[in-house]
Amino acid sequence: MGLVQRVFKRKERIKESEVISLIMKELRAAEEKHPHFPVDVIHASAIVAEEAGELCAAALQVTYEEGTWEHVVKEAIQTAAMGIRFLLNINKLKVRKSKQIKHNPDII
Fold it and tell me: How many CB atoms are closer than 10 A to CB 51?
């Protein structure tokens, strides 16, 4: 029985260790498929935002259409994995100067 089925059919709470394991498995798969993570903060954060948008879309689909909880869980795991990947790479992220605003030299 899958994760979603256990939670909804047996009313079980998901174990933290199981959630972390699923997220880390997704993180490793993403790193293998896309080994180069963006080095600028805007593009790196956009990856996290894109996954969060897909999670919102899945939630809308399960609410108003014939979406599935499996899809919601999948998108939540991917969002969490990309959030972790962002944080793991934060020391490599750069801010590109913009001509639109005065750049703060104290920003990394």
Answer: 21
Question: What is the residue-level pLDDT of the chain in tens, covering all 108 positions?
Answer: 566 666 666 567 778 888 899 999 999 999 999 999 999 999 999 999 999 999 999 999 999 999 999 899 999 999 999 999 999 999 998 887 767 666 666 655
**pTM of the predicted protein model:** 0.82
Which has the closest alpha carbon to 51: 68, 75, 30, 72?
75
State the Cα–Cα distance between residues 93 and 108, nearest whole angstrom. 8
Angle at 71 between CA 69 and CA 72, to 5 degrees: 60
For the chain, domain boundaries: 14-92
Beta bridge partner(s), residue 40: 94
C-alpha 73/C-alpha 66 separation (Å) is: 15
d(CA 98, CA 104): 10
